[in-house]
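Could you please consider the sequence and fold appended to this message?
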Amino acid sequence: MKIIGIHPFGHDSTIAFLDPEQRSIETLTLERFTRKKHDMNYVVSEFREKINGFKASLLALSNKESRPIDIKMFKSLQRIYEINATRRKRKLRAGELFELIHKKLLLRAYLFKRKHEGHEDWIKLLKRETGIPSCAAYDHHECHGYSALWTSNLAKKDDVLVVTIDGQGDDACATLSTAQTGQITRQVTVPNAFSLCILYSYFTEIAGFNPNADEGKLEALACYYTGEQSSLLNELRAWINFDKETLAFKFTPTSKIPFDAIPQNRKKILSWLKNVFKGVDAKEFAYAMQTLFEEKYLAWVCAAKDKFGSRHICMAGGGIANVKLNLRIFEEANFEDIHIIPAMGDDGVAIGAAIIAALENSVDISFLAKVQMPYWGRSAEPEEVDQILNMACQRGLRVEGPFDDKELSHKVAQLIGRNKICSVFRGRAEYGPRALGHRSILANPTDPNARDAINNKFKRREWFQPFCPIMTDYEAERILQKYYPNKHMTCAFRVKPEFAASIPSVVHVDNTARAQIINQSDEPFIYSLMVKLKEISGFAVLLNTSFNLHGRAMVNTPQHAFDDFMDCGLDYLVLENHLIGRQ
C-alpha cells in the first residue's frame, strides 16, 4: 500500500510519499521549489504530476480541524481569479490561486459566522484534487509525535515519553504522551492559550525580527546577556507555571502581566512588550524569553519523566527547533535515549500522518528506524547537471571532473584548508530545516574570519548568529563535553574550553556548538573530506551552513545552486562529482 502524507496548506507545506513495499520515502517541501521560506501555499498545485504518478491508495491529512472550505464558493472564486489573471496576461504562480481563494473564504466564514466541519471539507477537496479515493485526517500533534517515534530506534520500546511543543495545532500548543510498542497514548494536552511558542514569536516581532521565522535569532542573542538578574524574567516566571501533579499549565495574572491567555490577547501583549522593550536592553529582552522557555519546558518534561517512569524521549514540533532547550533536556533530564526528528516543524507532520495511516492499516514501516540520515528530498537528473556544467563553461568558469568521491573529497579538503569557501550540491536533499552536507556551504572552522566572510558575502545574518559544525564521531569525543551522537544538528553541546579558541567560527559566545556528528557510513563523502582536513588543519571539523542566499530557501535544483553561486562571492561549487571554480 502506497500512502501520501500531506500538510497541504500553511507553514512549511509538505507532501510525503511513503512506499513500504519498496522501503522508500520521498518528501517534498514547497519552499524548496518556490524558494519562498516557510511557503504557506497550497502544496497540491505544485506536485500534482508527482501525486498522479505515485498512484497512492490512501491520502493522510495532518490536521483534524482544518480551515473552512466551501466547495461551491471555491469553484466560483477559482473561475473569477483565473479569468482576471488571464485579462492581466499573467500566469498565477503555484499556490497563489488557492491562497487568494482561501483568504476570501476565511473572510466569508468570519462575516457569516458559519459553523463548519473543516476537515470534512478538506477531505472532499483533496479527494477531488488528487484523485485518491481514500482520505483520512489525523490530529496535528499526533502527527508530530508519530513522526518522532517512528524515525527513531525507540518505536518498539515500552517506556518512551513523546513530547510535542508547537505554536498551535488542533487546539493544542503542546502535548505529553507515552508510547508502548509503537502506539502513542495522549496523557496531557496544553491548550493554545498557554502557547509559549506564540509568546516567543511576539518577543521576536518586538525585537525587530520576523515572527514565525527568526526565533533562532532571539535564541542566539540571549546568550550575550551577562547580567546576574532580570526583572522581566522574574515577572514572566511568576505569571505562567504548571501544576506538578496534573502537568496542566496555568496563569497567575499580575498587575504588570494581567493576561490570562496568550494568542487571545495578541494586541494587548504586543503593546505591553513594546513598552517593555523601550526600557530594557535587547539582550536582556531576548534572555528573559529564552530562559523562560527553557525553564518551564525543562521542568515540565522532568516532571513528566517522573510521573510516567519514562526512560527514553522523542520530541517534535516547532518549539523543538530551540537547540538550547534541547541541550538542557539532554543534560538535566537524564533520559537514556533522546531522539528529535530532523523535520521537527510542520514539514514533519506530513510523514507523521503517513505513518499513522500505515499503522492503522497494519503496514510494516519498521524500515524507517534504520534510515539514519534524512536524505529524503529531491535529487537532480543527469540532464540538469549537464546543462549547468555547459552553462558554467560558457560563462568562462573552470569546470573539473568528474572525480570519484575520494579524489573529490580530498580536493575540496585542500581548498577548505586554504580557507576557501565551498558550496555543495550532491545527492538527495535533506528533509527538514538543517543542511546536513548535501545542500551546504562549507568552510574552515579554524579560520577566525570565516564566519564574517560568509555573513558579509552570502548569508547577511545578524552579527550574533553562530554557524555550526559537522564533525566526525571520534572528533566529537575529543572536542565536546557531554554529548550524544546527534546526526541531524538538532541539539547544542558544550565545547571543552581548551578547544573553543581553536575552532572559533563554529563556537558560540557561551561555548556551545550545534554539532552534527557523523560516522563514515552516514555520509562517506563528507566524512572523507573531514578526515583529510584533519591532516591539514588538525581538526576533522567543518563549518556548515545551508546553501542559500539571504531571503531564499535552501537550494533544491542544480539551477538554484548555480544561481546562488553566481549571485555571490562563493569560491567553489561542488556539483555532484564536478568542481566549478572561478578563473
Notes: The first strand starts at residue 3 and ends at 7. DSSP finds 21 helices and 22 strands in the chain. The domain at 382-581 is CATH 3.90.870.20 (DHBP synthase). The two ends are 52 Å apart (CA to CA).
